[in-house]
Amino acid sequence: MLAPLPWLLSALFMPAPVHAGDDAAGAQPPFNLNDPARIQAGKKRFGSTCAAYCHGAEGDGGKTPRFKGKSDFLPAEAYKVITEGRTGADVMPPWGKAFTPEQIWELVAYLRFLSTQPASE
Amino acid sequence: MDLSTLAKGCAALSAATLASAALAGTGPGFDDPNNWPQYHRSYNAWRFSPLEQINKSNVKNLHVAWIHQPGTVTHGLQATPIVIDGVMYSIAADNNVFALDAATGKVIWRFTPKLDPIVKEVFYQSASRGVTVGRGKVFLGTLDGRFIALDQKTGKQLWATQLTDMKKDYGALFSSPPQLAGETLFGGTTGGDQPVIGKIFAVNADTGARTWTFEVPRDDPKSWPGDSRRSGGGSAWLPGTYDPTTDTIYIGTSNASPDFNHDDRVGDNLYTATLLALEPKTGKIKWHRQEVPQDTWDFDAAYEALLVPDKNGKTTLVHLNKNGFVYVMDKDSGAMVNAWQYAENMNWAKGVDVKTGLPIEPMYPETDQKKLHCPNLLGARSWNQGAYNPNTRLWYSQGMEVCNFVTSAKQEAIAGIGQLSLGLSDIKLTDPPGKKADGWLAAFDPLTGKQAWKVRFDMPPLSAVLATASGLVFTGDMYGGLFAFDADNGKELWKFSAGSGARGGPVSYAVNGKQYIAIPTGLGSHAPGFLTGAFPRIRDLPGGAALIVFAVD
User: Fold this and answer.
1) pLDDT above 50 for A17
2) B298 labelled catalytic
């Protein structure tokens, strides 16, 4: 009963880095990714910032593998890509200077929520 | 017969085969048939080659002559190559400029600029639509907000001028080649969807010294109430054209910002969504036509200013707006001649008044309300230009039949330079009501909109179009299918699979009596990724970068 508590406490109260880019590798979320308020904040940010011209509504657009039904979703990996961006046949700009770590983790919470949803097709 | 006489005879025969179309017409569009000396080949934006060696009978034998691969596939190849006297000048990812032997593809020189690291943070990365060649120089607009001039023969840098303050202006950069108007080199940046004052810059082409800067949002509280002008957008991100006979620059401007929300900018928002006619020496406005006052749908007026003869031979200006309408105007005054609906699916207004050129009963987005808008924010067509054939008198141009649900929202302050201020909380691409989203290539009378033929594509093609005097129409699709159609009836006469989609400008030119068709391939730009929301199979389409040049034997 008590065993999970230290983990939970450190997850909730671990000091977040000042700059999102500082801690991209192996980063830990400063809040519970299942928190509905955080998911909603991420959804709002995604809709206004990420959807148009890039990822589409609920990530149904874009050139990445689908967000919905993504069984191998890894929060730390998502955090890193959002923070640092990605260059390949096309480009995702880095958001580490635009958003705080907390704001990026809210996006990760939304993406994690999407990964639990049935795939679009 | 000695060899030199024989050689002259062969050259004469080839010249006759190549350029017999030159006898059919003279002047802009017909001049200099062996070359592609500027972005649309001629300032009337025809993208028309007078060459006839490749024709309807032999186009099925078109084969690859050579391929140039720049080596980086980021955002594909979006350029329209320039070809002058056997040398091709083009640009690939990250502003790498190449001069190539146009007969063999051999690299003559290559220029790689050292770009400011900020280019890795901006929204519009890597891509450029071409270079401009003239006055012994090759000119480019860079990803870090400069115009640069190179020596045409050697590729060595002659001058560079910083024009934008990228940090202040949210990464405003040049994604298109600046154009020449005499000794003036001019061009606008990206940024119509960002909280900036969009600008068109001009420098002296020989020295790089700044001459004038045109701020697109007019400094008038009637146009921009309160503080709204400072975040009004209004970029001019595509190449303008220069008519030397009237010494006029034609250049169109983008949408107003925030794109889908007008609450704080209730005014006409001049000069956004406007076609401008400017004086090259001063940047002063000769005339303007604002196609979408208080634009709230991302309806840029940035596309090509096509100049075509009417039935009396008078040159008239034909201009497609992203909103799905074509505006036909007097080229010297901007006075309305006609307007016709280009998009099949259009619901943002009841129409366009032919006399005033104004939208009839526009349906504006309203804050926190979800509405269906057709065409979608990418427009009735993307920037991939059409082509005009003066023999058929038809304009060949593509369409995108895709709509979107948008929930307009107050735009909050944006944090990063790579962010857009779109004024929405939600956007979802969707099929037009009762139909399946798709695309097309059509042949229109540009003055009336009467349709001669239309070919459907399961996804909107994003390559520009090339028309040739032998009655061929070349373009490419998102899969990498390259096509030649019969200009009279749209029959497919040739197809080639390039392996990655076409997003640049096909051109035609001749070297030593042989005609070539050059088609840039390699999918790029934001359009394909966003269109995945309407066409899921785009997700699996590969990138690439291969400039493929074809000929017949």
Assistant:
1) no
2) yes
